[in-house]
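Q: Please design a sequence for this.
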């Protein structure tokens, strides 16, 4: 279950990164509004777009899914039983007792 959520989380994060990178930034029009000798309207500087486009809505949905998978991964990681120490996880082998070898007695 953890691995499935983790793989889904990574795929959503890569899609979110790609979707954000292909969007047109609102600050990209700032140079065109002030430069080039034209006055430019304030609507073009701050974006005259009234409703959100498909890309911004899609990135909002992916961000929500990313947030939910992050919380679910944190929940799943907190519910697993953890080993307190590395030495607790090692199996301690008992040495095998060997039969004493008959040695000659020394004076």
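A: Design:
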């Amino acid at each position: 279950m953890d691995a499935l959520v983790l793989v889904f989380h990574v795929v959503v994060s890569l899609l979110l990164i790609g979707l954000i990178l292909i969007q047109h930034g609102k600050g990209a029009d700032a140079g065109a509004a002030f430069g080039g000798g034209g006055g430019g309207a304030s609507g073009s500087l701050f974006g005259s777009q009234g409703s959100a486009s498909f890309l911004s809505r899609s990135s909002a949905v992916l961000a929500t899914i990313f947030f939910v998978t992050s919380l679910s991964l944190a929940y799943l990681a907190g519910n697993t039983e953890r080993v307190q120490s590395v030495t607790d996880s090692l199996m301690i082998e008992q040495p095998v007792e060997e039969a004493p070898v008959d040695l000659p007695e020394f004076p």
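Q: Thanks. Anything notable?
A: The chain is about 55% helix and 0% strand. The chain has a mean pLDDT of 77.
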